[in-house]
Amino acid sequence: MNQSESFHTTHWTRVLAAKGDTEDSRLALSDLCDTYYDPVHAYIQYTVRDVPADMVRDLTHEFFAGLLTRPGLDSLERGRGKFRSYLLGAVKNFLSDWRIKQGAEKRGGNQEHTEVDEDTATSPANDATYDRQWAYAVLGRALSLLEQEHRDAGKLDHFENLKPWLNGNATELSQAEVAQKLGISEGAVKVAIHRLRKRFRTLIRSGIEETVLSEEEVGIELNYLIEVLR
User: Fold this and answer.
1) Average pLDDT over residues 44-50
2) Which of 11, 30, 129, 166 has the fewest CB atoms within 10 Å, i.e. is most exposed?
């Protein structure tokens, strides 16, 4: 087995698992939709003009409902690359079809319609909004997994006290105070923070690996994640 084949047996797992029409594939696709809900919702919110929040939510639900009723991701092939890009293209097509439907209803006498600004729908700034929410989703999923690991190990209190050193909220916190609170040495706190950050990075990388094709793309996505968060 060559390096590329070995990579594909362990990476891009959630996307590949979502292909097909089985219960497992539907669960995998549902998991992907849950992870990417916020990026898609943000994109629709910034693309569809002057609509109430409930309509944005309904459109987001309609998009994912359509995705979930398809037979997996059979149209997504290995050569198509990142799932992030695939989903952005899918929501653009969804809004394009919805816009056409809105126009047809208007011509048919239904005056209650909502417009999608063509310039806004193709705006790089709008794509950046989607990508920024994608980055938050990747970090949020990794953080949730890390929390669950600590809960399973009976160390949730350690996680809650050390989490500020992951999310940038530790600027006014004292490691000595945390050490006293947890009943461990300050040196042990430093080691725990180092291990926590290392595990956090590993979970972020794993999450990206599940939705790209190659080792090279993992590095590109990680660098892009850092870029959009800046």
Assistant:
1) 86
2) 30
Exposure letters 2-22 (e unless 16+ CB within 10 A, then b): eeeeebeeebbebbbbbbeee
Token pair 């590329």 in the structure block, residue: 4
Residue among 58, 87, 61, 60 nearest 75 (CA): 87
**Between helices 186-209 and 124-152, what is the axis angle to 10°?**
130
User: Among residues 112, 132, 113, 129, which one has the least CA distance to residue 121?
Assistant: 129
SS3 193: helix
Q: What average pLDDT score do residues 22-42 get? A: 85
Render pLDDT for 69-90 as a digit per residue (tens, 0 to 9).
765 566 555 545 688 888 898 8
Domain ranges of the chain: 3-229
